[in-house]
Design goal:
Length: 207
């Protein structure tokens, strides 16, 4: 897997076009495996090139009724001018009767600075579940995730007051991969001052 040293785009401006996906089961895919398709927004910080867009790591999971895409993102800088490296989630329904997903009507969730450690803890098996609400300008978006060992998955649900609820069971091994991506993003915020071992030990305080 490849982690880009480049600055990441503002998540709400990132286009997402996806190839057809299997009806059932899941598929993980790295953005570097195929070129980015779509028009780059004009208001993206640092005028990222097409190759830089392709370097953003993405992991996609497809289910029978919906699909999720997790990718590297960065919050807006605020007063400090420096954003927080995190993860964005795009969620889309499967189009009825077709083997494609409706990414044009996707729901978008950006994990906040304070939510990210809890998300990592669930994905990597330190904590059993977490849930967050009040995302989006209307405070009507959110997500829930719960480890379900008996089903061998992490059940992930994205809800959107304007665009319904999308739910996908993520197989444990793929949840682990997403967790590793999220952990790598978290560590980027500390510029090498802490290690993954320090973070993993600290996560147990959130269990």
């Amino acid at each position: 897997m490849h982690y880009s040293p480049a600055r990441y785009p503002q998540p709400n401006n990132l286009p997402s076009q996806h190839p057809n996906a299997p009806q059932q089961g899941q598929q993980m895919q790295h953005a570097g495996q195929a070129p980015f398709h779509g028009k780059q927004p004009s208001n993206v910080a640092n005028n990222r090139s097409e190759q830089q867009w392709a370097d953003v790591m993405r992991l996609k999971v497809f289910g029978g009724k919906a699909a999720l895409e997790f990718f590297e993102a960065e919050t807006r800088g605020g007063k400090t001018g420096k954003g927080w490296k995190t993860i964005q989630i795009d969620a889309a329904y499967k189009i009825q009767g077709k083997e494609v997903y409706d990414w044009q009507r996707k729901s978008i969730i950006q994990i906040t600075r304070l939510e990210l450690p809890y998300v990592i803890a669930v994905l990597l098996g330190v904590r059993s579940s977490c849930a967050y609400k009040a995302h989006g300008p209307n405070k009507d978006k959110g997500f829930e995730m719960e480890r379900q060992p008996n089903n061998g998955s992490v059940f992930f649900k994205v809800f959107d007051g304007q665009n319904g609820t999308k739910a996908v069971p993520i197989p444990m091994v793929e949840a682990m991969m997403i967790g590793h991506m999220a952990l790598a993003q978290y560590l980027e915020n500390f510029d090498g001052r802490i290690s993954s071992d320090v973070v993993m030990n600290s996560l147990h305080s959130l269990a």
